[in-house]
Amino acid sequence: MNGPNLRERRRAETRRLIQSRAMRLFVEHGYDATTVTDVARASGVSPMTVYRHFPTKEDLVLHDRYDDLLAERVAARPADEPVVLRIGRTLVDATRSLVGPAEGAPSAERDLLLARLRLMVDTPALRARHLDSQYATQKAVVDAVLGDTPDPEAEFRAQAAAGACLAALHVALVRWAREDGRPDLPGLIAAALAAAFDDDFG
Amino acid sequence: MNGPNLRERRRAETRRLIQSRAMRLFVEHGYDATTVTDVARASGVSPMTVYRHFPTKEDLVLHDRYDDLLAERVAARPADEPVVLRIGRTLVDATRSLVGPAEGAPSAERDLLLARLRLMVDTPALRARHLDSQYATQKAVVDAVLGDTPDPEAEFRAQAAAGACLAALHVALVRWAREDGRPDLPGLIAAALAAAFDDDFG
DNA sequence: TCCCTAGTTGGTAGTTACTACCATAACGGT
DNA sequence: ACCGTTATGGTAGTAACTACCAACTAGGGA
Asked: Which end of chain B is more exposed for a tag (fewer CB within 10 A), N or C?
């Protein structure tokens, strides 16, 4: 029962390397102008290996592993809270713990998120894929809200609520990226949610 | 100042032909299993011509021309109505006038919409592109809401509201397609909006 | 310590969406 | 009848993927 193998560590390492080199190239020369072969060369591996680690070129940017985090936090909130508040406040809180309360300290996490968002906002292919991945996020959130009571009507209502919350989140993210990450992101999200649902998410 | 030329009519005709043949092939054999060359052959034109009329293969399915309709109707509603109600009720009304009040009469428009939705729901590439095209719809709706007062804060709030409404619409559309178009679509949309915003969109 | 399995990587060849670049033919107004 | 415009076709090329097969190497057991 030992931890990560040498094999697994090496695999994770090359994966990390490929993605970081890819992001650098994308930021420098643009997403469309960078080929997968370029990424492979910059990483010292063959194009095949890139495809082994990232099934599509878009996955080099998307990477989203926030789904589980969100689902956990949503499940942790009191179940008697109205669904929209439950999801919305989770979004604000989870974001705050990710990027920090204000714009004070520059964090690597924040910079990477910003770079990814900028790419996604102005590259149509990435924008589309990101919106589709929000689909998976929506499903995770809905499952967390429902717990283990399979009621189709409740599921439908939860889907609508989750979809609407995530749409507001997306609007906030886009604006944050447009303004180069200067505004307070949790605040922006709360403002977008408040504009949509006329309630307090702060 | 005469109407459509012979040239324009022929162009529109081949465009219509290509799209209808494409939809038939997609429905019969699946989207991914159908190549653009297949579509061209089935339409009696060259692949080049297909690309001239539809810049991407996805555009053969997407076609959305509802943006202008929605924008018009949103603009027509009283400006003092809360934004979410204004947009949401427009969605319900516009859909009702498109697919009819109930499931009574089978309409060609309805069947085509249903076929397109089904393709979009289970083809990832199409789903992503459709979500991205909702982006354009969102922009059109926001512009209609704002009229000609360029206030950044109001624009942000309108974006959040429009995005949330369209997300609820999407949830309703997906469920409608899943249930083979049996439920009353305007009713579903109203229910999704009600679930998200806890208000009456009937 | 020595294999033997299994997983990581690389190479080759192919498919498919999509894009210039140029040629041809037909339409529309003069 | 003439000529610019426009729809279409052909050729060649790029780039994102996808089998299919070969080589190497780590991990675990004999």
From this structure: N
Instruction: Identify all chain A residues contacting B131, using CB atoms and an 8 Å cutoff.
Output: 128, 131-132, 134-135
**One-character DSSP codes across A143-188:** HHHHTT---HHHHHHHHHHHHHHHHHHHHHHHHHHHTTT-S-HHHH
Stretch 98-137 of chain B: residues touching chain A, C-beta under 8 Å: 124, 127-129, 131-132, 134-135
Q: Is B139 on the interface with A (CB under 8 A)?
A: no
pLDDT band at B2 (very low <50, low <70, confident <90, very high): very low
Q: To 5 degrees, how large is the angle CA A171–CA A173–CA A178?
A: 95
Cβ-proximal residues to B165 (8 Å cutoff; 6+ apart), any chain: A164, B84, B87, B88, B91, B141, B193
* Cβ contacts, strand C, under 7 angstroms: A 7-8, 10-11, 14, 45-46, 48-49, 52-53; B 2, 5-7, 10, 34-37, 47-48, 51, 55-58
Per-residue pLDDT reduced to its tens digit, B145-188? 998 888 999 999 999 999 999 999 999 999 999 999 999 999 99
Token pair belonging to A133: 């991945």
Is the four-CA dihedral B1, B7, B11, B17 of positive or negative sign?
A: positive
Token output for B61: 């399915």
- The reported pLDDT for the residue numbered A2 is 46
Which residues of chain A, if any, have pLDDT below 70?
1-4, 101-106
